[in-house]
Design brief:
With 349 residues, this protein is mainly beta. Helix content is 1%, strand content 51%. It has one helix and 27 strands. Strand 24 and strand 25 (316-322) form a beta hairpin.
């Protein structure tokens, strides 16, 4: 069971990987690399045994003159890219998969190709530079479905979604009914990335006495009192766990206006769950010829069963394949009898 690699460089400690391979196909321990090279460049070839295996080996190679194009793959902060880069055979198909880190989301490709598809499949025919763009995940709650999507906690009297007032749309979050010397508080706990948060607030209270207060980890960031129409409030927040709290607190007597505080459009750089950040394991891509390509992304060198369904209830095995060293399987030119009702999923064996 061999391992094969191609490198450039002048020192063992400073080699740059050009390409590598473990198993060329499922069920074999042989390794195989097809890689575009440039004339006049020295390349180093390394052969090793998987898991420390030892023995004799045959190394065979063949050079065929061909057109070569260079692909530079760059990333912004917050993610990485799976797929080839460097010198590639002109006219070859390239598959790039953007992988966001926790707390970031993929926004699209820029440069020689501007697209939002992930994975990105294209044919290289010249020098290309492509950048994967990532951004901090912003979790928003606009309350427009009549409910709360963020995991709020309440003390004092509970806040509730109301259709009596809103900055945009038809709904907002309203403080609970509060008697004299009482309060209504809504709290949000979570892991955050460095970034900025924002929300819209409206206050209708006894000016100077009944207060709306916004705090982060107990530190006051904003106070409002009186009759204040909708306004946007923005703030910086650092990476880590934080507690955000909005409180409406009344003094010992009197009430004015609606005697309430309203919140809308809460946008926060909260770190999403692992499930939300993972790229979709199965992507179906329409080809120009009217057929389909199925791209599966999973664990490297793992066998998967690709199942198909027309109703998401009954599933049948369509293919079996093993991911490459990048954790990818590409099934090209697949036909579907009913394009409007074709579903696919990948199950690890």
């Amino acid at each position: 069971d061999t391992l094969l690699g191609i490198y450039t460089g002048n020192k063992i400690s400073e080699l740059t990987t050009v390409a590598s391979n473990d198993d060329s196909s499922s069920g074999t321990g042989a390794s195989r690399i097809v890689q575009a090279l440039t004339s006049g460049t020295s390349y180093w070839i390394a052969v090793d045994g998987f898991g420390g295996e030892k023995g004799q080996f045959d190394l065979r190679y063949n050079f065929t003159p061909t057109g070569v194009s260079k692909l530079d793959v760059l990333t912004s902060k917050g993610g990485s890219v799976r797929g080839p880069s460097g010198y590639l055979k002109t006219g070859s198909e390239v598959v790039l998969t953007a992988v966001p880190e926790f707390g970031y989301e993929f926004k699209g490709w820029a440069g020689s190709v501007e697209n939002v598809e992930n994975p990105l499949i294209f044919t290289i025919d010249s020098f290309m530079e492509i950048t994967a763009q990532f951004a901090v995940v912003t979790v928003s709650d606009s309350f427009e479905d009549g409910s709360m999507s963020l995991p709020f906690e309440f003390t004092g009297t509970d806040w509730s979604v109301t259709d009596q007032d809103s900055f945009v749309g038809d709904h907002s979050l309203r403080s609970g009914p509060v008697a004299d010397n009482e309060f209504s508080s809504v709290t949000l706990r979570g892991q955050f990335t460095d970034g900025r948060g924002k929300f819209d607030i409206k206050v209708s209270t006894e000016e100077g006495w009944d207060l709306a207060v916004f705090t982060i980890d107990g530190k006051v960031y904003g106070e409002w009192s009186g009759s204040i129409d909708w306004q946007r409030f923005e703030f910086a927040i650092t990476e880590g766990e934080h507690v955000l709290e909005w409180t409406y607190r009344k003094d010992f007597s009197n009430s004015e206006g609606s005697d309430a505080v309203f919140l809308d459009n809460i946008d926060l750089p909260i770190i999403a769950s692992e499930e939300e950040n993972n790229i979709q394991p199965v992507v179906v891509v329409d080809n120009p010829n009217g057929q389909l390509s199925i791209v599966i992304t999973g664990s490297p060198n793992t066998s998967y069963i690709i199942e198909a369904s027309t109703d998401l209830t009954k599933w049948q095995t369509a293919f079996k394949a093993t991911t490459d060293s990048d954790g990818r399987i590409i099934i090209r030119n697949t036909e579907s009898s009913d394009r409007s009702q074709s579903f696919f999923r990948a199950v690890a064996e």
